[in-house]
């Protein structure tokens, strides 16, 4: 899809064609696990029989770390902290000048179950039907290399070896890029000299201004033509609620600090943090509305160059995703494959249109509503289909738990459309619309055919 040259375009955004986030506050601790509830009731606690506090409680609740995939009893988390088993680091401390802290090393984890083959001997890992107490493998949470838990396969010197980040090193944001900065001291020492009180007040006000601009993290990327870091935004509310599962998958493969849950906010803050990263690419996991939301945020920040946006379709319609060859809906494709598509995808231009809405002299002041967005990416419509879409949006906002599958969402659309069609709520649309296109008045044609909806298309789907 190329840029249309014959039309007047207000704004052009780059897209990719496929041919909290997480603890961002000043209280973030490096190596903290990202615990999520899990149904792995039969999986053994990572602490093992010797250190596990609840080894006899078979039904005790468990937690799973999204970043390193270990499973422990909820009651054993404190015990895990006592033995100082930390999760993979996601940033570095700003005050550290040690070169060792800037080198990313493997994050080795014992595994009782492991798929694939040993990196050293090339043999497959033994798969058992029941959960084994034996540790069969040692694997890195970053590069995903795995070895048999044998001296002949895994050597002690490998523990301190630098990690290459594995197959997706080109899209992963290294922890050494993300620096946690200390909060500046806002208080000033009292001075006994009265004559300098005014100057101290001036300094204090300047310090307060600095505090308002302070952010807990800064990025210092090292430019490389081989790297195309990906910033992932996931909307768990889109389509069939697949977002929660995807969040954990991306946190496992990538640096968790480049993965953001849009339901927790932080879109603008994330874009501001990563705005100076060279060759940055964005992956929008959601529906067409999510993509529009992210594009509008990019407009507000005026990022230059504007990073291209890829789409993982989680919505109901996914018209824009189908236009850009990302498919009509996510069907549990391996996240690793999706990231390869994002990294290798070609950049195309997408026409985006400003919509100007003005009140007529006959329109009353009361009852008028301001448009939430004045830019449209896919299409702009009046009448029947717009009314159905609005009804769907309002119903989902009121009862999100009822819209938990793509099929159910489409059934709601069909039911609402059929009901609205019978009621003919837009039967008089042609009497209230005047359409002039490129100087040609199309209003008589619209009134003759008595259209119940008018759609202005920007994409072919």
From TrEMBL:
It is an enzyme of class 2 (transferase). It catalyses: 1,2-di-(9Z-octadecenoyl)-sn-glycerol + ATP = 1,2-di-(9Z-octadecenoyl)-sn-glycero-3-phosphate + ADP + H(+); a 1,2-diacyl-sn-glycerol + ATP = a 1,2-diacyl-sn-glycero-3-phosphate + ADP + H(+). Residues 191-206 have a biased composition (Basic residues). Residues 188-207 are annotated as: Disordered. Residues 225-359 form the DAGKc domain. It holds the Pfam family DAGK_cat. Its EC number is 2.7.1.107. Pathway: Lipid metabolism; glycerolipid metabolism. SMART domains: C1 (SM00109), DAGKa (SM00045), DAGKc (SM00046). InterPro entries: ATP-NAD_kinase_N, C1_DGKiota_rpt2, DGK, Diacylglycerol_kin_accessory, Diacylglycerol_kinase_cat_dom, NAD/diacylglycerol_kinase_sf, PKC_DAG/PE. CDD domains: C1_DGKiota_rpt2. Signal peptide: none annotated. It comes from the Eukaryota. The keyword Ion transport does not apply. Keywords: ATP-binding, Kinase, Lipid metabolism, Nucleotide-binding, Repeat, Transferase. Belongs to the eukaryotic diacylglycerol kinase family. This is Diacylglycerol kinase. It comes from Ameca splendens.
